[in-house]
Amino acid sequence: MAQGSQPSAGAEADAPSPPARRQPRPPSLLDALVPIVVLIGLLALTIVFFGIDATNGPLQVALLLSAAFASLIAFKNGYTVAAIRDATVGGVTTAMSAIFILLAVGALIGTWNMAGTIPTVVDYGIRLVSPTWFYVTTAVICALVGMVTGSSWTTAGTLGSPSSGWPRCWAFPRRSPPER
What we know:
- The structure is a single chain.
- The protein is mainly α and 180 residues long.
- It contains 7 helices and no strands.
- The chain is elongated, with a radius of gyration of 29 Å.
- It starts with 8 loop residues before the first helix and ends in an 11-residue tail after the last helix.
């Protein structure tokens, strides 16, 4: 074999080593607060500019822009795209159980409303509940439904509107805010 065909041991030692990975540094207090301020600012501007129509899409854009801003802060602190992606996937994975619970609660509320359960509860409440016992009765009914369904969101969504409708039907006087 020719001498030039095989690399010598000294040539391997002279080869440049791959660059050392930079360790990400933890965010400072400012790094942690600025994305929150940007989020609040973008949401406020969206509501100011679009009003009630903000729910048709501009709020989602504001949320995405604030997430992109937070990603820029993470890049500044040395995190890689892969690390940010993994953190995002982990956060969404953690939130999925809560999202499914909220979807189920929404389906239950819609089903109860379409089936007439909520209007029936309002009707029975007006007929059976004494205005004197309104608060106690509401607390007991909400506690029972909360224990049966296991969800405070379901209780608030299904019994909140009937409970708030009872005093109006009994002609409870509305309290005016105190004058200044």
